[in-house]
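Quick start: load a record and inspect it. Here is Cytochrome c oxidase subunit 2:
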Amino acid sequence: MNGLLSLALQGAGQSFWFPEQASTVAGRIDAVFYFILWVSIISFVGVVGVTLWFAWKYRARPGHSAVKTSSHDNTLEVTWTIIPTILVAGMFWVGFKGFLDLRNAPEGSYQVNVTAQKWSWEFQYPNGHLSPELHSWVGQPTRLLMTSTDVLHSLYIPSFRVKQDVVPGRYTSLWWEATKPGVYNLFCTEYCGDQHSAMITKCVVHESKEAFDAWMEKDADIIGNSPSLVAAGETLYNRKGCTQCHLTTAETLKGPGFLVLSKAWADGKALPLDGGGSVMPDENYVRESILVPGAKIRDGFKGVNMPAYQGRIKDDELGAISLYIQSLATDGN
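Running the structure step on this input writes:
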């Protein structure tokens, strides 16, 4: 068993099956994988090899008659029962031990709250700051407390070897400790609708707590760090999940294109609503549509089910997004 685990640990450093290891648990996860892989390969080759050799050696040939053999052999049967049992028990033990370790985050872990929704991620830090990307720093155990606003999702960071379902109506969690700075892919691995493949973001690991704090200070003030409110609105459009459903052209994705709204706003034309009636596009309409999306649904877009941003966006950010939408009609579109 120890020899196989040593072989597995040697294989864990390879990159053929996996991306680079970037967390403290990655090597252990890879070791379990390689342990099971090598046991399976050796078992497969051994069983198939012996079967083929016996099939050739004892094949039917002219002049040979069948030899009477015993119906069973206790030693053989005990052997092929005990050895696989030991191997399977070993696989279970190393896997279960790793599972238990991954369930309990170390004391002093940095907690980030995660909200999954079709089709974007939102990460909330202890100071209340929201980000569409996950940030942490090297050497800091990080715990994610996760929930979903709509359907089942699953958060997966391949380089950290961590994955956990994100379930509506309840909390799930996972943790890791990054070992090297970098930008790593973060995926949803549970099919969640026709834009599932777009539910990808980044996990950014900073070199130090100081670098993380510097990012936080800059990122928390989008408006203050933007050259104009329109530019801030564009940044917010890209970061708040708007891009998953709304284009800045007249084309539709899941929701209406913002250019249609912008031109109607500039021309003072009302937009038809689902079920009859109309609405004049202005700052109040944009604000209401973001905070309470179901209040006034545009004609042809019933059933889109946009998530509500009440309590998740600031007033000055709403104003910046309104200005950005207004600017689309005057930017040569």
